[in-house]
Amino acid sequence: MNKLLAAALLVVSPLALAASQYDKPGYVTKVEDGRLWVFAEGSKELAQFEQHGEPAISVSRIGEGPEGMTLRGPSAEVVEAYLAK
């Protein structure tokens, strides 16, 4: 039984760690340096961020994120759509 539980935790744990408490349906968030990055789920911008870090071009909304965080994203459209959810 302990082996089964350990195997289940190995499968579930990486998935649980990947999600942010600020995610909304259709959007993935990442907290970095006290800023909340927002990406459309499955977007090329998200993949690039995960591989290379902060993009060269981004949009910031100072203090508009949860808990007063600065909200950042690859475009105004993505940030505005996230805020509207």
Could you characterize the architecture of this molecule?
The protein is 41% helix and 22% strand. Residues 4-17 have low confidence and may be disordered. It has one domain (21-84). A four-stranded mixed sheet has the order 1-2-4-3, covered by helices on one side. The termini are far apart. It contains three helices and four strands, in the order αββαββα. By secondary structure, it is an alpha+beta fold. The chain is globular, with a radius of gyration of 15 Å.
Short note summarizing the structure:
It is built from 3 helices and 4 strands. The protein has helices spanning 2-18, 44-52, 76-84; strands spanning 27-32, 35-40, 59-61, 70-73.
Strand content: 15-25%
Number of folding domains? 1
By helix and strand content, what is the structural category? alpha+beta
Mean pLDDT: 85
Q: Strand order across the biggest sheet?
A: 1-2-4-3
Seen as an oligomer or otherwise, the chain set is: single chain
Q: For the terminal residues, how far apart are their CA atoms?
A: 42 Å
Following the backbone from N to C, one meets helices and strands in this order, namely: HEEHEEH
Radius of gyration: 15 Å
Overall geometry = globular
Poorly predicted runs are 4-17
Number of helices: 3
Largest sheet: 4 strands, mixed
Helix percentage? 40-55%
Defining traits:
single chain, 85 residues, alpha+beta, four-stranded mixed beta sheet
Task: Map the helices and strands.
Blueprint: H1 2-18, E1 27-32, E2 35-40, H2 44-52, E3 59-61, E4 70-73, H3 76-84
